[in-house]
From TrEMBL:
The keyword NAD does not apply. PANTHER family: ALPHA-1,6-MANNOSYLGLYCOPROTEIN 6-BETA-N-ACETYLGLUCOSAMINYLTRANSFERASE (PTHR15075:SF2), ALPHA-MANNOSIDE BETA-1,6-N-ACETYLGLUCOSAMINYLTRANSFERASE (PTHR15075). It comes from Saccoglossus kowalevskii (Acorn worm). Its EC number is 2.4.1.155. It is a single-pass type II membrane protein. It is found in: Golgi apparatus membrane. Residues 36-129, 142-546 form the Glycosyltransferase family 18 catalytic domain. The lineage of its organism: Eukaryota, Metazoa, Hemichordata, Enteropneusta, Harrimaniidae. This is alpha-1,6-mannosyl-glycoprotein 6-beta-N-acetylglucosaminyltransferase. Belongs to the glycosyltransferase 18 family.
Length: 561
């Protein structure tokens, strides 16, 4: 303890630690109620409380004159799949995962790792602490500090692992079990989140005020800790997946021979075909339609036109063989954002992607009600529409039958296509992306390094009602939420908006930093968890942090590697 050094926090110090004051007040009154606090040196003084709340727990910033805890518990990483398989050995529900890993390990993952090593220097990667125990998230929460019997005590010294990958259902269980240790471990979480969690739904206090409450939201994590299947919103991290196929490198260099009039319909459940007959009738004018619909009885196939050749449920290998023969893969409008269109394109198919006008969102579509996102889907598969496009993807309005027939004629007259997989959905691309996240994303340090680097920052000003995601994309860029803090000053608003702020207001909403052009009123963000690429204000111009991206690797900028 060094009582002559400052232990008080200013309001400026606490901009990113909104709960710190409340925790200090509580600890000042109740520090003596748990032997755990005394064990860590809390004696009721401001210094002891500040040190505990900043270094043992993470509620407050570390005091400038204190040094951080050394990271000295490193273990060697495993490079084989056997340790993972041992954790999955006794559970049949993991069988399909094990089979897929086993199928791809030697001929996909290992070569991808070697290829990445040839392109990037991976020799200086920091070793990550890991555990080989199953259900580790639960055991973490009950670890006891040495010499302390109370299970609510924080783990002594360095955390036993660096990262915890978990899904939304597991997250609910984890938080319940963690109890008072939630704040200590929450920064290590990486949440596998199919549809994403936008900032407007992530912070409970704002969600209550703005009417964006969701049973899937209000976690209070840094939005980039949520990892999505597709790059839905830049506010979350894009984890992605690998498109599986049995093609070799040389197969991607030549077109795939096709049956020019063969189409496969995307829809394994019969109810997905409901109200689609008029649409399919037009396609059937040029193509023979094949389906893979599951049915227990003939009544289950009532929605399927009689001219469709239904193969029933097929194995993965059988589906691949069907796609190799077909020229067209037909979307029915649902499911949204699925992997199947990418698998079809990987086999040289053209994907017919139905458009939505007006776009689908939580206000007009039951499927999205309650989901923690403000997304508006302009088509069944927005990724394929925006990042792939023609000739592999034709996004069509099925209500304009004349234009629709012209598209079908164009597809049938198009020469056969080479198989195509965007780099970010290949094993090497996924390894490259996850390696960049693991090495550079840091949500536990009080002052983490800036990543992506500020050299990639390109500032754009939105129009009223326009989101930062939209204005960046309009300029061929990606909104980068980690840059918001660098724009959140009066000086930056004035410089980028070409104005002089007559007044500056601190707000807690998803639209700042921003300004009102007519009145020169400027808004700064008070709550860092509300920095958001999504959302547009009716009256304010948003100051938006954009960046470039590597073609085929949208989550990484050109200076990110």
């Amino acid at each position: 303890m060094e009582p002559d050094l400052p232990c008080q926090y200013s309001d400026k110090n606490l901009q990113e630690f909104v709960h710190c004051r409340g925790k200090i007040d509580w600890m000042g009154k109740y520090w003596h109620t748990d032997s755990c606090y005394k064990h860590y040196g809390v004696d009721g003084s401001m210094c002891s409380i500040a040190i505990y709340l900043s270094e043992i727990e993470n509620w407050c910033p570390v005091l400038p004159w204190r040094k951080g805890v050394p990271n000295n518990l490193l273990s060697d990483p495993e490079s084989e799949m056997e340790p993972l398989f041992k954790l999955m050995a006794d559970d049949n529900k993991f069988l399909w995962m094990k089979n897929r890993i086993d199928r791809m390990w030697d001929n996909k993952w290992v070569p991808a790792g070697k290829a990445l090593q040839m392109k990037q220097d991976l020799s200086n990667r920091s070793k990550k602490r890991q555990s080989r125990k199953r259900e580790d998230a639960k055991s973490l929460c009950y670890m006891k500090a040495k010499g302390v019997s109370n299970k609510n005590c924080p783990v002594s010294g360095v955390r036993p692992v660096d990262l915890i990958y978990i899904d939304i259902v597991g997250l609910k269980q984890f938080k319940k079990v963690a109890g008072s240790l939630w704040n200590q471990f929450s920064c290590m979480l990486r949440v596998i989140d199919t549809f994403g969690t936008e900032p407007a739904f992530n912070l409970d206090t704002y969600a209550r005020k703005a009417g964006t409450k969701s049973v899937w939201g209000k976690w209070g994590l840094v939005p980039l800790q949520f990892m999505t299947m597709f790059p839905h919103t830049p506010d979350n991290s894009f984890m992605g997946f690998v498109v599986e196929n049995d093609l070799q490198d040389e197969d991607f260099e030549r077109p795939v021979p096709k049956q020019n009039d063969m189409a496969v319909v995307y829809g394994k459940k019969a109810d997905m075909w409901l109200d689609s007959k008029a649409y399919l009738d037009i396609i059937h004018e040029r193509f023979t339609l094949h389906g893979t619909v599951y049915a227990n009885t003939s009544d289950d196939l009532m929605n399927i036109p009689r001219y469709v050749i239904n193969h029933g449920i097929l194995s993965g290998d059988q589906v691949q063989e069907l796609l190799k023969k077909a020229k067209l893969f037909v979307g029915l409008g649902f499911p949204y954002d699925g992997p199947a269109p990418l698998e079809a394109i990987a086999n040289g198919c053209v994907f017919l992607n139905p458009s939505f006008n007006p776009p689908l969102n939580s206000m007009n579509t039951k499927f999205f009600k309650g989901k923690p996102t403000l997304r508006e889907l302009t088509s069944q598969h927005p990724y394929a529409e925006v990042y792939i496009g023609k000739p592999y993807v034709h996004t069509v309005s099925i209500t304009n039958t004349t234009a629709f027939r012209a598209v079908l004629r164009e597809i049938q007259e198009t020469e056969y296509l080479k198989p195509y997989v965007p780099h970010e959905f290949t094993p090497e691309g996924m390894l490259q992306r996850l390696n960049a996240y693991i090495e550079n994303q840091d949500f536990c340090s009080a002052n983490p390094k800036q990543w992506p680097p500020l050299s990639a920052l390109k500032v754009k000003i939105s129009n009223p009602k326009e989101s930062c995601k939209a204005v960046c994309m309009k300029n061929g860029l990606i909104c980068e939420p980690s840059f918001f803090k660098s724009l959140n000053t009066q000086e930056m608003i004035e410089r980028e908006g070409y104005l002089e702020c007559k007044s500056v207001i601190s707000v807690e909403d998803i639209y700042a930093p921003s300004f009102i052009k007519e009145s020169n009123i400027c808004h700064l963000e008070k709550q860092k968890l509300l920095f958001s690429c999504a959302g547009g204000s009716d009256t304010r111009n948003r100051v938006c942090p954009c960046r470039d991206f590597i073609k085929g690797q949208v989550s990484l900028c050109k200076d990110c590697l």
